[in-house]
Specification:
Distance between the termini: 42 Å
Strand order of the largest sheet: 6-5-4-3-7-8
Oligomer: single chain
Number of helices: 4
Largest sheet: 6 strands, antiparallel
Structural class: alpha+beta
CATH topology: Mago nashi protein
Helix content: 10-25%
């Protein structure tokens, strides 16, 4: 399962990207071609115990606290990065998690199916870290704007030593260029580790 705190955090903030949707057509969107999701296991969530043998669950922070700037722009230690892409005409829900401590990447597939985990290399982690630092996690916040029908909504949640930063936006909202570049770097790694599968063809007539 994916880290519950980050997934709850993403879900709580996805709706903050939108206001009343205007009439319009379908925006261009990107994502994996349709394919059955692979199977595997994801990173385990962590919890803080209050006494030996007792575990106290941690409540998911609100978007305002996640965007408080507690995460520094310079990342000098391991972190957990969760990227969600939801919506589109088909109503997809894709989740990608990068755990730099375990050096693993986990992908849940096109419709939030069973996740699959693969190892990542130090250069692959370095590329994401560079894009993260350029995007400045201390400035992460929900980007609001008018909703567009069938648009994709994106959420990047960063857990750095227990400190959280969250950025959310949708197609049609004026997201900062560095945030868009971060999404592109994440998608590039995702597609390299979990390449799209060709559609299964039916029997020949």
């Amino acid at each position: 399962m994916f880290p519950k705190t980050l997934l709850l955090l993403c879900a709580a903030a996805l709706g903050a990207c939108h206001e009343t949707p205007p009439p319009g057509g379908h925006p261009p969107s990107s994502g994996h071609p349709t394919a059955p999701p692979p199977t595997g296991t994801g990173a385990a969530p962590t919890a803080t115990g209050t006494a030996p043998g007792t575990v106290q669950p941690t409540a998911a922070p609100t978007p305002s606290t996640a965007a408080s700037g507690a995460v520094p722009d310079k990342l000098e230690g391991p972190y957990l990065l969760t990227y969600n892409q939801t919506g589109g005409i088909a109503g997809l829900h894709m989740t990608f998690v990068l755990d730099t401590n375990k050096r693993t990447a986990t992908y849940s597939g096109l419709r939030g199916g069973s996740p699959e985990t693969k190892d990542v290399t130090a250069p692959e982690i370095a590329a994401i870290t560079q894009a993260l630092e350029a995007a400045r996690p201390s400035t992460f916040a929900p980007v609001k704007g008018p909703a567009v029908p069938d648009a994709f909504t994106y959420a990047v949640a960063l857990d750095y030593g227990g400190k959280l930063a969250l950025a959310t936006w949708s197609d049609g909202t004026p997201a900062p260029d560095k945030l868009v570049a971060l999404r592109e770097a994440i998608v590039k790694l995702r597609d390299a580790k979990f390449p799209p599968r060709p559609p299964v063809s039916g029997p020949k007539q």
